[in-house]
């Protein structure tokens, strides 16, 4: 409901980096920001309002809105981190499939249109059940901080970050 009501939306909106959660997240302590891994140009962070458990976002550090605005190295790293995210989620939660994509612009469904982000949504057979339709709710069996710690521990290489690591 916080997402729908907009109660956590900054007063000036998300258009400027000072109010953008994707610009602010890398500078916060890892456990608070839900950042799972950091690369040189992009990072992976858990979605605060997940469609499914383990829903990750891959974001460039640079505050850009459109996919064509990424430079070559950002585009390559975004793709590589997305691949790693899929491997990590599969290893931790045995996802059966994924929805991967970007909503470009508010009219396309982007909640934060000013800062490009790619969704990595794990899927399992039968994950769309009666709860959202009849119960008007979604069951998320794990706290986001716990999911973040599991993914961060499983992330390979130097981009791995621990639960108490402050971001620079």
Q: How big is the Rg?
A: 15 Å
Mean pLDDT: 83
CATH names the topology as HIT family, subunit A
Query: How do the helices and strands follow one another from N- to C-terminus?
Result: HHHEEEHEEHH
According to DSSP, the number of beta strands is: 5
Distance between the termini: 31 Å
CATH class: Alpha Beta
Q: For the largest sheet, list the strands in their spatial order.
A: 1-2-3-5-4
- SS summary, helix count: 6
Low-confidence stretches: none
Proportion in helices: 25-40%
CATH superfamily: HIT-like
Total separate domains: 1
CATH-scheme architecture:
2-Layer Sandwich
Helical/strand content category: alpha+beta
Description:
The chain is an alpha+beta fold and 168 residues long. The radius of gyration is 15 Å and the shape is globular. A five-stranded antiparallel β-sheet has the order 1-2-3-5-4. The protein starts with a helix and ends in a 14-residue tail after the last helix. It has helices at 2-5, 21-24, 30-33, 72-93, 130-135, 144-154; strands at residues 35-38, 42-46, 56-60, 97-101, 118-123. It has a single domain, classed as HIT family, subunit A. It is built from six helices and five strands; from the N terminus they run αααβββαββαα.
Label this structure with key terms.
168 residues, alpha+beta, HIT family, subunit A, 5-stranded antiparallel β-sheet, 30% helix, 15% strand, globular
Care to give the gist of this entry?
This protein has 168 residues and is of the alpha+beta class. The protein has helices spanning 2-5, 21-24, 30-33, 72-93, 130-135, 144-154; strands spanning 35-38, 42-46, 56-60, 97-101, 118-123.
